[in-house]
Amino acid sequence: MHEQSLFASVPVHQHHELLQQLAGLTAMQPRHCLERRLIFKAYRKPGMAGRIGASQDLQQGDLQRLNKMLNGNMYYTQVVGPVSESDFGSTAPVDQDTQMAGMDDSKPYDPSSPSYDYERQPWKLEFRDIPEAGTRSAVTSRLMSSATLPRGDVVEAMNAWGYHFITEYVVEGDMFVLNDIAIFLHRVLHYPGGDESNLPRRQLPALKDMALFEKSGSYVLQAFTIVQDGSNQETMKTASQHLFGLREQLKSAVLLEQADRLSLDTRAK
Amino acid sequence: MPITGVYFIPSNPNASTALPVITERIRAAFPNEELTPIGRWGLEQKLLRDTQGLLPSSNSNKKPSNPRYMQFLSLTHYPTHGFIYTSEPEKPIPAPNQNPNQAVPGPANAIAPDHSPSPPMVMTTIPPSSYGTLFQHFTYACQPFWSHRLTLTVPNGIVYEVGDFRVRLGDVRQTFPTARVRGTVVEIEWCGPSVVEAIPVDREDGSFDVGVGAGGDCDVDVGGVGIDLASSAIEESDIDAEYAATASLIREFWGRLGVEAREAILIPNVGREVKDRLRRWKKAGSGADTKVDRTGSVVGERAEEDPDPWSGADVARQFMEVLRFNR
Amino acid sequence: MSNLTQEQIKVLEQSRQRLVQLTRSLGSLIASLNQSDPLPPWTSLQSQASIISNNLISVSDQLSDQRDLLSNLVAYPGPEYPGRTQANTLEQLLRTKLDPRVEDWVARGRAAGTESATTPSNFSDPDTAHKPLTDAQLAELWEWAPLEANQEARRRNWGGNFTLEEREAGIENVVTGLRRQLEDDDDGEEESEGEGEEGDGEEMDVVGVHRKPGAAEFEYNIAPHHPHPVQPFVPLDLILRYMTTGRMP
């Protein structure tokens, strides 16, 4: 699959108006989303690369193939999970045993009170390649894939697969859909208290305690189209033309542009 | 989740398949059973191996120790998900900020025997739609450390019912990198009454469904045979005992056939998901009262909901154990 | 007094025709503005305007060419004129002075004509460029400028004192017309505190023109979208980089 995108930076004072403009343009109400995003990075045992010498076990052709393989790219990848506002600042689900104990103290237990259960958090592995080089068209085009992972803790599996956890943040934003284009107006929220944890959080702080990554509170506007078959030049062209059409429509409000390729470089060095 | 055992008979120059032999032995050992196929089944396994294992050691011909594997398995009798079974990393993962240049003991220091125990493995199940996507991801984005070594399939296996057992038989064919016959695989599933089946499957919303077959489609009415227990009545030790007892039944069954084979029954981590489920069930106590409504928080995810994402994990482990060819 | 000659009648007839043409083209412009929905394209409006302008020129030429004749002509009703039924028309025809409304128009036209004739174009000559504007001109300017500035501002993403083009060309070259020094405060450091959370504040289009106490100059606040525009501190590419790899900028 390929993702074609255009991006824009939206100052906070323009956010409200742009939301309304987008709602008008797409004839839909914004769909508010909150996502946990975990960043993972592929790791390789140190000293692996470039260590292959000639050996009687390997044919020359095999050796070349192996060399190419071993010196291939490794990547950052994201694990993304939807959360809801009520997940923030809520406690873990009440353990039945402790609840019983609580009942003795005649503390009322409210089963409908919100709780966040990390063990049931759904996740998706979202991979994006570095955007294609060259400027055939002025959109950011990159290979992508998205796969559902099991609920709950993904770190054990991710570690086994060759990825380690780097950091995590929350994205809040609003999603619109216009024909084949998805429009996501979003910004990054940080967890309070820095990054001392080397594991994803099992509980989420109150939403109001989350800090803005970009201190002015500006938003990122991403308009994107996903093309199932990236090798089909016709569909790729159609998709980018639709994005250009949107750019024209939004011209007086925001300037949608191709992103700096290296800013979206997912290669792990 | 039924208790199972898996046997693999490698092909040899005299007999590429053991299928006719086994069918004949079952017929002979259970003369009172009518041996007619009740269905078909299939399997596909893709095996990836860490690239370190492929490298000839630069200074010696010693085989690298502890090869790591990643196995993708799909079974037609568990159509709601695929299985990924991956070796755990050998040592704690270095912190991201650690100096990558610092000396790390290379495999040359580890004078390991040829058949060193493989590292423990992590089971993951994923919806079918993600199965191919993830495989592609590893072959595309993880080339420097994962290498696709082979693909095996059981294209059209046969299912028999023999007494309290369900038997799945099939020839294992290698389709990648070259086509060849690898042998014959047999899955024996215990369909009799089982404590394990009495543990209800918990749904994604945290409530429990009593009586939903956890992938086990044996027509044994669990309640009917008298196993209808409260969560407090089952302990983890009961589950271990149950697995051990059933394993001996399966071994006894296999023993009557007199075929030599590689066996996978009580392998590491078998029963782990069942115990997890028991733990959750006990925690939930009286069950449906603790429903946590998460609907609405996950938009568009419902379609992929798997009623029991961990069903079949045991048998998947067993298949992958016998099909983990070292190459 | 004698009867008009054929020549003179012809002149009158010509004048009448030109005036009819002018009325018609004005009428058609008014009609197209009133009736067509959406408004006619600007090209058609412009061509109508130039037709009217041509008509005006030919009327004006005609009137000035025949000034002698026309100023000497006197109208009076003949005996056969239906004075009772057409009294209104008769009054109009017999007026010797202009209708007060028309008198107004003429006066304004004259004034405009003499001004443009006596005041040279504002910036052709550096000396005259610094000549202070008359009160009327100032009033006119202030009436015009806020609307125009607002329109211009709507087209841009304003935040600082200078436009991107101006900054690229070097702000020292910008003619602000102001005596005080404008700071290029694009960094926005001083307005950073505490403004990040104001996204939900009431938003309105504000163009304020006010006199600073004790200062001679006027100060403009052009904020088309928000009373406190806040530009992002972290550029888009650094945000994307963080989102991709978790690397702090």
From TrEMBL, chain A:
Belongs to the Mediator complex subunit 18 family. It comes from the Eukaryota. It holds the Pfam family Med18. GO terms for biological process: regulation of transcription by RNA polymerase II; termination of RNA polymerase II transcription. It is found in: Nucleus. Component of the Mediator complex. The keyword S-adenosyl-L-methionine does not apply. GO terms for molecular function: transcription coregulator activity. The keyword Nucleus applies. Gene3D superfamilies: Hypothetical Protein Pfu-838710-001 (2.40.320.10). This is Mediator of RNA polymerase II transcription subunit 18. GO terms for cellular component: core mediator complex; mediator complex. Component of the Mediator complex, a coactivator involved in the regulated transcription of nearly all RNA polymerase II-dependent genes. Mediator functions as a bridge to convey information from gene-specific regulatory proteins to the basal RNA polymerase II transcription machinery. Mediator is recruited to promoters by direct interactions with regulatory proteins and serves as a scaffold for the assembly of a functional preinitiation complex with RNA polymerase II and the general transcription factors. PANTHER family: MEDIATOR OF RNA POLYMERASE II TRANSCRIPTION SUBUNIT 18, MEDIATOR OF RNA POLYMERASE II TRANSCRIPTION, SUBUNIT 18.
From TrEMBL, chain B:
It comes from the Eukaryota. Its main location: nucleus. One of its GO terms (molecular function) is transcription coregulator activity. Keywords: Activator, Nucleus, Transcription, Transcription regulation. InterPro entries: Mediator_Med20 (IPR013921). Transmembrane segments: none annotated. GO terms for cellular component: mediator complex. Residues 88-118, 286-311 are annotated as: Disordered. The keyword Cytoplasm does not apply. It is found in: Nucleus. GO terms for biological process: regulation of transcription by RNA polymerase II. The keyword Cytoplasm does not apply. Residues 98-110 have a biased composition (Low complexity). Belongs to the Mediator complex subunit 20 family. Component of the Mediator complex, a coactivator involved in the regulated transcription of nearly all RNA polymerase II-dependent genes. Mediator functions as a bridge to convey information from gene-specific regulatory proteins to the basal RNA polymerase II transcription machinery. Mediator is recruited to promoters by direct interactions with regulatory proteins and serves as a scaffold for the assembly of a functional preinitiation complex with RNA polymerase II and the general transcription factors. Component of the Mediator complex. This is Mediator of RNA polymerase II transcription subunit 20. The lineage of its organism: Eukaryota, Fungi, Dikarya, Ascomycota, Pezizomycotina.
TrEMBL record, chain C:
The keyword Transcription applies. Pfam families: Med8 (PF10232). Its main location: nucleus. One of its GO terms (biological process) is regulation of transcription by RNA polymerase II. It comes from the Eukaryota. Residues 115-125 have a biased composition (Polar residues). Residues 183-205 have a biased composition (Acidic residues). One of its GO terms (cellular component) is mediator complex. Residues 111-131, 179-207 are annotated as: Disordered. It is found in: Nucleus. Keywords: Activator, Nucleus, Transcription, Transcription regulation. GO terms for molecular function: RNA polymerase II cis-regulatory region sequence-specific DNA binding; transcription coregulator activity. Component of the Mediator complex, a coactivator involved in the regulated transcription of nearly all RNA polymerase II-dependent genes. Mediator functions as a bridge to convey information from gene-specific regulatory proteins to the basal RNA polymerase II transcription machinery. Mediator is recruited to promoters by direct interactions with regulatory proteins and serves as a scaffold for the assembly of a functional preinitiation complex with RNA polymerase II and the general transcription factors. Component of the Mediator complex. Belongs to the Mediator complex subunit 8 family. This is Mediator of RNA polymerase II transcription subunit 8. The lineage of its organism: Eukaryota, Fungi, Dikarya, Ascomycota, Pezizomycotina. The gene is MED8.
